[in-house]
Structure formats: structure tokens, C-alpha cells
Amino acid sequence: MATIRMFPGATVLTGSTHGGYERMTMGVSLARRLLVSGLHLLDTWHQASIAAHNAAIMAQLAASDHRVLADLRAAYTRGGSDSQA
Q: In 3D, which of 31, 37, 35, 5 has the Cα closest to residue 18?
């Protein structure tokens, strides 16, 4: 390990071989990956929540109006991404 010289009043260690630097960057990298994963999971949950809410509203509308039910059946019959909109 290289010698690190501290001058009077210095508050920062310098030197690229200091072991704490590698541990700190590894910890920051891990924290970043955890944050990105957490945000992705939160976004996925939010999108699923929106889809469930929309499906519940559509079911309520279909129960109260036969025209909505006919449109809903037509959308499911077409299939594909149209039924997910």
C-alpha cells in the first residue's frame, strides 16, 4: 500500500489504493442496483393497480349499461392489444 501523507489540518485522505474507496464505490453500486430494482417493482405494481382499477370500472359500467357490455365483448372477441387498452 502506498504511503499516504497527511498535512496539518487536512481532512481528506488521498491515494487511489485506499481500501475504503473500493468498499465505498461497491456499496454505492449495490445501493444503486437495489434502488433501480425497487423502482422497477414499484412501477410494475402501479401499472397492475391501474389495470385492475380500470377493469373494475369497466365491469361496473357493463353491469349498468348493455351497450358497454356489448362493446366490451366485441373488444375481447377482437383480442390482441385492443382488449388491454
A: 5
C-alpha 76/C-alpha 54 separation (Å) is 15
The pTM assigned to this predicted structure is 0.52
Q: CA nearest 74: which of 60, 62, 57?
A: 62
Note the maximum CA span of the chain: 84
Helix (H) or strand (E) holding 29: helix 19-64
For residues 76 and 58, what is the distance between their CA atoms, to the nearest angstrom?
13
Quick: pLDDT tens for 19-53: 677 788 889 999 999 999 999 999 999 999 999 99
d(CA 13, CA 2): 12
